[in-house]
Each structure stands twice: as structure tokens, then as C-alpha cells.
Amino acid sequence: MKERDDYQALLSHMSDCVAAVNRDFQIIMSNERFQSEFGVHPDGICYQVWRGRSSKCENCVVEKSFQDGEVHTSEETFVFRDGRKGETEVRATPVKNDFGEIIFVLETVTDISEKRRLQEEVRRMGGALEEWLAARLRRLQDSEEKFRTIFERSQDMILLFDSEGRIEDVNPSAVRILGYEDEEELLAVGSVAELFDDPKAFLRIRQRLWERGVVQNLEISLRTKQGQALDAMLSGNLITDAQGKVIVEALIRDVTLRKRLPSLGRRMVDQMRQSSEQLAALNRISLTVSSSIHLDEVLSNTIDAILSVFQADSVRIYLVDEASGDLHLAASRGLSQRFLEKPYVQRRALGAGLLGEAAQHGRAVILEDWTETSKPFVEAVLEEGLKSVAYIPLLCKGRSLGVLGVSSRFTQKFSGQEVEFLASVGSQIGMAVEHANLYEKTYKALEEVKAAQEHLLRTEKLASLGKLAATIAHEINNPLASVLTYIKLMLKLITRDRFSPERLGEIARYLATMEAETSRCGEIVKNLLAFARQSETDMKPNSVREILERTLAIISHDLALRGVQVRKELGEDLPTIQCDFKQIQQAFLNVIVNAAEAMSQGGPLLLEVRRASEDGFVEVSITDAGCGIPPEHVKLIFEPFFTTKEEGKGVGLGLPVVYGIITRHGGTIEVESPPAGEKQGTRFRMRLPVATGATETRAEGLEVSG
User: Fold this and answer.
1) Which letter, b or e, does each residue of 267-295 get, where b requires 16 or more Cβ atoms within 10 Å of its Cβ?
2) Is residue 169 a part of any domain in this protein?
3) 331-363: b or e for each residue (b if 16 or more CB lie within 10 Å)?
4) Considering the domain boundaries, does residue 119 fall inside one?
5) Mean pLDDT to the nearest integer, 645-659
6) 383 is a domain residue
7) Helical H runs in 226-333?
8) Reduced to 3 DSSP states, what percent helix, strand and coil does the chain have, rounded to the nearest 5?
9) Residue 682 lies in a domain
10) What is the C-alpha separation between 214 and 205, in angstroms, rounded?
11) How confident is the model over 472-487, as pLDDT tens digits?
12) Range of 212's domain?
């Protein structure tokens, strides 16, 4: 029972959602964050009460960890307690007892929805945001390099090890002090327990870490590689690395000399201890700033880091409101609700009181005893029991973005080292605030771009609709006017009793004209419907050869009358394509007819089919020897209603219909036409996707028809 309480205490120190699951998939423990996000209470079956399933999940990471004793991860979509749906990373970590038996598996759930959304927004926005992210990446790399330098140059030993005691990383000082040749030799030791003079002492320290999440200044005895005894002082805490794994960060300082020279060395050792603790705290704050875009999380973790190494009773963080210019309380710890509810504590004008002065002038304000000042708001501070305070401006790029206030309930003289530490913390918070503001502005700009794009699309749709209406009215009005004219003529003939056999020839001519004009209207409407049609396609594997042959059979007579000689060059072992037979046939027909019309005196028409240079596509090329397309028209030929034909010969929907069919099939279409003065002719190159797992029979070479 005590072991379960110990692990429950450990879970409470972790910022992610964490639950412990036994072999029966029962949730035996969970932290408050887990219960808050999912509303799940202990003793429930994880796949029932958490995931809403009647049976265990496929590829269950918990089951895998119980089977092989390894860490497993997966990405899953969860519905949180507040109803929002989010993308998460789930990590299953087996926890073993002292006998190496797996007693339960820790499931750590990290919400990565914001990370995924930001990645997508970054991908879409590109440009300035990409440059901003590149700059931020450089800053993060500089920050990581800075704290890696601290890790490697620290004069104290720093060890990182997992829950089983396996050493994961050491700094050069640990290698040197423990007498090893290099880092690899020390890592090869395996367990931290092997470095202890008494391995059981390590087990006791590990248990205390699991119970409290942190230990400070524990006296231990180590053994160097050469077997020499080493007196040391150990401080450690639990952290979560970038992969969500819980590890121990231990700072071990050699106090052998201090024990030999207690009066001389104690002060030096204490200063070193304080420096190391402060550097470790700065490292944790920097990691939080670099890995999180949530300002509230950064501020909360920063306050925890300050209180863990600094003799203070309360911390307040104020940020500048860009809209009003006032300071507002963003985070606090260690103060009564009555004090926090005061209006001037919640919000403060720049320059008002010591806090406002620090923010306004960008300089630290230190007060060792509140009773010795007559500054505003002193009564409320003394009523709260605070005696001394350090107000540190939050600076970034020379601008003051807020104030960090650290207070104690006793008279305290802040040393230069302590003020420098708090100033470094203030710079880290300032950087985090700057990042958060940049993200908010970027997100707002993205929303404005989206709104502008939607407005532009609506405007373009209205413009296209007006163009469509005007074109249809013009194209249909002319033939209808002709039909109406001839109807009126025949009505006059009937009215005047002139509908006689002698005038049948003239009446027949009227009717023929009316038939032609009516057919023209029908053709316009048919092309318009083909252009606008969005019906589902009948996608099947089809032979390109068969589609071309049937297309040519339809218009072979017309091609012969025009003097067009068709030459076909078909590649070998052509695969079938995934398409709607009739729609692709219509696309081929439109392009071939256009090519024939471009050769007013006839000429050769080359049809080529081969495998495209891109895998998974077949390329169909149709090349004529006609008049060509002017360069200024090439980019317009696929736009609806663009045509160079004389009135009555077309409305400019043939090639837009082809473009729509090819793109809906997942293909592409390109046009090549040489400039005036060079060899004339036009080539349309269409690429269509190959059907999976099907091929045509071998081609029989070149075929020529005329």
C-alpha cells in the first residue's frame, strides 16, 4: 500500500496527464491533470471508461510494455472532458520493483494538438512565418548550446538517470572526479548504484525521489574507479525529457575537501551549491521556454523553479497589456486570496509604486525592508506580512514587457549573485512573452488572410457568374433572334394566305436555318453543362489504346474530309489507366477536333502514348501541324469562354471541359506551341494515373491511318 502511495506522490509532480495501469487494464492511479482532462477515476478499466471501448485496443501499448518490458508510444485522438477533440502522444513506460518484475505501466498522455495545428499553419503560411520560425530555431539552438555549455563546464558532477538507475548522461566533471578515462567508460558502469559505497543508500535516495519529486543536500559516499572513498552532497529532482520520459537530474558535489577544512571550505562550497542550483533552475526554465508555446505553462514552471532554489515566500509576474499599457497580474504563488483580489494588485499603471517603476524604467528595484519606505501600496504589503522584495523587469530586445516580483516574509539582503540570477530569469520570461506575442500576432494575421481570401473568392465567383451570364446571353441571343425572325416571316405568309406550294422551297430554307440555329443553341447548352458537371465518375481500369481507337472511329470520316493523316505511336507494355471511359473519350475528342480545325489545309496529326517520366502515369500527346497558338493566348486557352474562333463557331468551353476532366482524374495537361516565325504546330500533353496491378498487352509498333 505504501508503494502505491509513493507512486501516487510521484504522479502528482508530473505536468502531463499520467495514469498507472495494471495487467488487467485497471487504472490504479492517476494524477489530477489526468482526472481533470478526462474525468476518469481510479479502478476503472482504461479502454472502457477512458477510451469508450468494449474491448482492449488493437496494438495496445500497455500490453506491449507488459510483454517485452520496453517503452512504447503511439499517437491517438481523444475527446477531453470539456468536449474538445485533440491529438495526443501516448507513452507506455513499464515500472519494475527491486526484483525486476513489472508492477504496472505508466501511460503518459501529452496533448500535441497545438503543435500539429501550428505545423499545418506554418506549412500554409510560409514566407514571413517561415523566416520567423527559422530565427526562433536559431535562438533555441543558441539557448540549447548555452545550457549544454553550462552542463559540460560545471565543476560539480551532473548525472541523468532513469527510474531504474540506468545512467543516461554525465558531464565531464563526473568523469574527472570519479577517475574514469572518458564518458563512454563511465556510462558503461550502467547503474548509479554501482558508484555508491553502499548500493542500498542509492535505493533509499531513489525511494525519496519517487515520494517527494525532489531531494536536496543529501550526504552520500561514493567510490572512484580506483576504489577511493569520496564524500559528496547530492541534490536531485524529477524532470520529463523531450520524449515524455521521466528521468532524474542529479547534481553531486565533492565535499571531501570541505570536511577536511570545514571552516575555510564551507562558504565556498555553499556558494558553488547555490550557483549550481541556480544554473540548473535556469536550464529548466530555458527548456520550458524553448519547448512550449503556452505562456501560462511557462510562467507556472518558472515560478516553481524560482521557489525551488531561492529563499522566497511568494512570486508575482506582471505583464504589460499592449492595448492599455497597464501591468496586469499574469501568475502568482504564495499569496493570500484577499491580497490578490485588491484592484491595484490585479492591475497597476506603469510607474505606479516600486513595481510600476521597475517596469517603466527597465531597472531592478530592490527593497530589503518595506517598513522603511513610504511608497504607495505599502500598507497592503505589510498587511500580507511581506518584508523584502526584488522587482526585476522582464526584458527582451531592450523592451520592458513586465515585472517579476520575488518577496520574503523576513528582512533579506539580496546578494549580487541572487539579483543576477533573477535578472537571467526575467530575460527568459521576456523571451517567452515575446514568443507568445509573435505567435498571437501571426495567428491573427493568418485569420485576416483567410478572411481576405474568402472575400476574394466570393468576389471572383460573382465576377465569373456575371461573365457567364453575359456570354450565354450573347451566344444564345443571336441564334434565337434568327429563329424568331423566320417564325415571324412564316406567320406573315400564313396571315396573307401566301403559304402556297410555289413558296415551299423558300419555307424549307427558313426551316433549315431555324433548325441550324436551334442546334447551335443546343450545342452551347451541352458544352456549358459538360463544363459545369460535377457528377461522380465511373472509375475503372481502361485501355488507353481502346479509348483512342473508339474516339478516332467517331470522327475518322470528318478527319478524312479535312485531309488529316493520323499517325499513332504507341509504347510497349502500356499499363491501363484508372478513369471514366466516356469522360476521357470526350477529352480526347475535344483535343483532336481542335487540332483538325487548326489545320485548315489538312496535314499530319501525331498521337503518342508512352509511360510518363513520373512513376504511376501514362502520357498521351496529340500534336498537329496547324497555325499554332500565339504566346499571349497560351495561358488563356483553358479559361472558360476564351476563344479565337469566329462568332458562331464556338464559345470557348471545349478546352476548359478537357482541363476539368483531366484534373478531376488526378492528371495534368500542358500545351506547347512555338512562337511565330518558327515551325508551327501545337502539342497537348496529358498525363493520367495508372490503374493499380493491371497492364495492357504488348504494342505492335507503329500504326498509320489517313
Assistant:
1) eebeebbbebbbbbbbbbbbbbbbebbeb
2) yes
3) bbbbbeeebeeeeebeebebebbbbbbbbbeee
4) no
5) 68
6) yes
7) 256-260, 262-291, 295-309
8) 50, 25, 25
9) yes
10) 10
11) 666 677 778 778 887 8
12) 154-279
